[in-house]
Design brief:
With 791 residues, this protein is an alpha+beta fold. The two termini are 63 Å apart. The relative contact order is 0.06. The chain has five domains: 112 residues, no CATH class; 97 residues, no CATH class; 223 residues, Spore Coat Polysaccharide Biosynthesis Protein SpsA, Chain A (Alpha-Beta Complex), CATH 3.90.550; 157 residues, no CATH class; 103 residues, no CATH class. The chain contains 25 helices and 30 strands. The protein is globular, with a radius of gyration of 34 Å. Strand 15 and strand 16 form a beta hairpin. The strands form nine sheets. A seven-stranded mixed β-sheet has the order 9-8-7-10-13-12-14, sandwiched between helices. It is a single-pass membrane protein; Single-pass type II membrane protein. It is found in: Endomembrane system; Golgi apparatus membrane; Membrane. Keywords: Glycosyltransferase, Golgi apparatus, Membrane, Signal-anchor, Transferase, Transmembrane, Transmembrane helix. Its main location: membrane.
Length: 791
């Protein structure tokens, strides 16, 4: 039996190959490396005259399997060990010959793949002839480069998902000529996190620039007949309900403060205004009562012109010949009319402004190895990215690039969005102009930030500063609302901190957590090792609020999972709830709470950008539409669930410590009412308390003495807590034994009680003394880690 495992492995390899389609990769044998073959050869070179050596030390190795003759002897019954060793070596020698043949086969397959690769060409640059292409498959290469040596054993079919770590190209065939081409050539790790990549899109990807060329060629300048007339200059803006106040402020500044008399077009989508029917009234009132040229309103009804595409649509359909586009929250500090007569504009007919980002330091993947350059059939351009909050364009001179921008924004499939090759519209103008070699002037002065100093060492930038071609400040673009900061207080700072921090392994802790065990150990537990997360449960509370609330006639959680805009965040699977959420009390309508966020562990790198973006959506948009959570709590796990990224909850339900004013141990020892307690999230027989979220244990009235009367009935302060709810799996509370009593949300009736660990009182006293020191500005207590010397 010396070589039995390898024989079995080899047989399974051949069986798998026979069942697979006939391709280079699928004809190869996987998993049997050259090092394994050499090990086997060494181990079969034992001298027949010394069989005892084989029984003591001979080992057959294949990857992680190692079997010694001595360990396998019982399987031969009473046979002589020397005879067993001889038989084993015979089997191993036979296997070595088979593996040697397999190695030769692999070498031949690689040689064939390399030879074939030489005949697979790159599509000619600048080609405008449409081809009939079909996908052949993914061709993997080594050295993390599409030009590296072929690795046919890792080739994939057109519909297989290609790992972001892989390098190679998609092979396509011209149906008419039989020529083969390399498309979507990519190095390893060039795509942004969690971007799905399959070669099935390769034919359309290859034809994209040809379709773009046709779209531009067939498009006429809408103002072509008026070329000989004096140009009509004006400002174009796009608004939606939330931007109305910003637009009002910008237009009023232009008219009243800066004396700008340029006519203004305001474009909007009527369907966005339906829920706020009077949204445009302030702007119409301003238009009727302001001096200067006309302010006009223009609806956008094209179903393709949504979100950032409305900007591109408005510029393309404007009645002005020369357009200054302004984002509604972009305020000039001087009358910008002079831009139409600036030397830079008169020479080129277009002025663009730079963003903060450059290919060497980009948030949006616009680097030299991006698939973007192949998609657009143009060489990499090493320059700053574009910020499109303002731009000046002569539409008569640049009809073609404007139409190309519209094609980039509206063509389906939208490769820019699918592969995250650009962010919205911000770089589409620059790229279209570059593609057509159309002239433009990029302002040379880099953008700056304007904001406030919050303390002696912290600057908070709220506004992007852009300059005119001479380098003087011209625009203040309020990228962040000045009012938004007031919405990020208390709980909401936590997910905001999670989103912005550069720390990879983040542990969010409430400042009132009384820690009983070093929480760093959680990162070594199975849950965190597998998913990069550790979450804890909250109480089961059967109330029609939050996750269990009524959102247009349905439970919020169920409606969210089904109607969430997965496409907006490039989540390809759509509605696909995890088993965890399907089994949750919240999904079944039995609890309005699911997660307690007093301790949250997330590996941001493993979580990925999609999770962070969905989290940001929750805290900047969704919570203002529907109160889905008590504070921030549900934000974290919901972001993972909607992104279809695995996450881990503690196996244990929430516990609490007893409250002295409620007389828990005297009146209802099976129903404690107090601060949340969480256990170390290991499913074993040893119960360890991890922490207590104990604000109410540290300060009797954390909201101030003005609330004493209101808080007295439900005062959770306890001078010396003695008991806790026993560790148990999450379950509903049981009020059967207390049907006449009214319990508050902090109580866990029917779940029992057990003694707290003896060390808890010591830790609690230390925290109380530290709190007292901070509250009274007597900081001496903070200089001591231990409160008393141990006896």
């Amino acid at each position: 039996m010396y070589g039995s495992v390898l024989v079995s492995l080899l047989t399974k390899q051949h069986q798998r190959l026979q069942n697979q389609p006939n391709s280079v990769r699928q004809r190869s044998l996987q998993g049997i490396g050259q090092s394994d073959i050499q090990l086997l050869r060494v181990n079969t070179n034992d001298d027949d005259s010394t069989p005892s050596n084989a029984t003591e030390s001979t080992i057959v190795s294949n990857s992680s399997w190692r079997y010694s003759i001595e360990e396998r002897l019982p399987e031969f019954g009473d046979e002589d060990p020397s005879s067993v060793a001889v038989k084993a070596r015979d089997m191993a020698e036979s296997l070595a010959n088979s593996l040697s043949n397999t190695s030769a086969m692999e070498a031949q397959l690689r040689a064939d793949a390399e030879l074939h690769a030489r005949s697979v060409k790159i599509l000619p640059a600048g080609e405008t002839r449409k081809r009939a292409l079909k996908c052949i498959g993914w061709r993997q290469t080594g050295h993390k480069s599409p030009n590296g040596p072929r690795e046919p054993e890792n080739d994939l079919t057109c519909t297989d998902l290609v790992s972001n770590k892989a390098s190679g190209y998609c092979e396509v065939e011209d149906i008419n000529s039989g020529e083969r081409f390399r498309v979507m050539r990519r190095s390893s790790n060039i795509l942004r996190n969690r971007v799905p990549f399959r070669c099935i899109n390769a034919p359309a990807f290859a034809q994209y620039h040809i379709q773009a060329h046709a779209a531009v060629k067939s498009t006429l300048d809408p103002n072509d007949a008026s070329r000989d007339l004096p140009p009509q200059d004006g400002i174009v803006m796009v608004v939606y309900p939330k931007l109305i106040p910003s637009a009002y402020a910008t237009i009023r500044a232009l008219r009243v403060i800066l004396g700008c008399s340029l006519p203004i077009e305001i474009w909007y989508r009527p369907d966005e205004m339906e829920h706020v029917p009077n949204a445009l009234v302030p702007l119409r009132h301003l238009a009727n009562n302001s001096s200067g040229a006309r302010i006009s309103f223009h609806p956008i009804t094209d179903p393709a012109a949504k979100r950032f595409v409305t900007k591109i649509y408005a510029i393309n359909h404007s009645f002005f010949d020369r357009v200054l586009f302004l984002d509604a929250d972009n305020v000039p500090v001087r009358d910008p009319s002079f831009l139409f007569n600036s030397p830079e504009f008169l020479e080129t007919g277009a002025i663009f402004w730079p963003d903060f980002w450059h290919p060497t330091s980009t948030m949006f993947g616009l680097h030299s190895r991006s698939l973007l350059w192949e998609l657009l059939d143009m060489p990499f351009v090493d320059m700053f990215e574009q910020e499109s909050g303002q731009l000046v364009v002569d539409r008569r001179r640049h009809a073609a690039p404007l139409k190309l921008v519209l094609f980039y924004a509206t063509h389906e499939p939208n490769f820019f969005a699918h592969y995250k090759l650009a962010w919205g519209d911000k770089d589409l103008f620059r790229l279209a102009w570059l593609k057509l070699n159309a002239p433009f002037h990029m302002v040379e002065t880099p953008p700056a930030m304007a904001g406030m100093v919050t303390n002696s060492s912290a600057f908070c930038g709220m506004t992007m500063v852009q300059h005119d071609p001479e380098g003087d400040v011209l625009f203040l673009h309020r990228n962040k609302s000045s009012n938004m900061t007031t919405n990020f207080q208390s709980w909401w700072i936590k997910p905001l901190a999670m989103y912005h921090t550069d720390i990879r392994h983040v542990m969010l802790l409430d400042v009132d957590d009384v820690i009983m065990k070093d929480p760093a150990v959680l990162r070594d537990l199975d849950g965190y090792m597998k998913t990069g997360t550790t979450f804890f449960y909250d109480r089961v509370a059967h109330k029609k609020r939050f996750l269990n609330g009524n959102d247009h006639g349905r439970y919020y959680l169920r409606r969210l999972l089904r109607e969430f805009d997965y496409a907006r965040f490039n989540v390809s699977r759509g509605f696909a709830p995890s088993q965890h959420v399907l089994n949750s009390f919240a999904y079944k309508g039995k609890s309005c709470h699911e997660m307690d966020s007093s301790m949250v562990l997330i590996d941001k790198e493993r979580a990925g950008n999609t999770v962070m973006k969905i989290m940001f959506w929750f805290i900047t948009e969704e919570r203002f539409r529907f109160k889905y959570s008590w504070g921030d709590k549900e934000t974290f796990w919901l972001a993972f669930e909607l992104a279809h990224v695995a996450y881990t909850y503690s196996p244990w339900g929430v516990s609490v410590v007893n409250s002295m004013p409620n007389e828990d141990m005297k009146r209802h020892p099976d129903a404690l009412c107090g601060s949340i307690l969480q256990f170390v999230p290991i499913d074993n027989s040893e119960t360890e308390v991890l922490y207590v979220n104990g604000k109410a244990l540290i300060d009797p009235y954390p909201q101030g003495v003005a609330y004493i009367r209101k808080a007295k009935q439900n005062n959770l302060f306890n001078m010396l807590p003695t008991h806790m709810t026993p560790r148990q799996y999450r379950r509903e509370v049981n009020t059967t034994a207390h049907q006449k009593e009214k319990f508050n949300i902090e109580c866990l009736p029917g779940m029992g009680s057990t003694l707290l660990p003896a060390s808890f009182s010591h830790n609690l006293l230390r925290r109380r003394l530290h709190f007292l020191g901070v509250a009274t500005d007597v900081i001496g207590s903070l200089q001591h880690c231990e409160t008393y010397e141990e006896a």
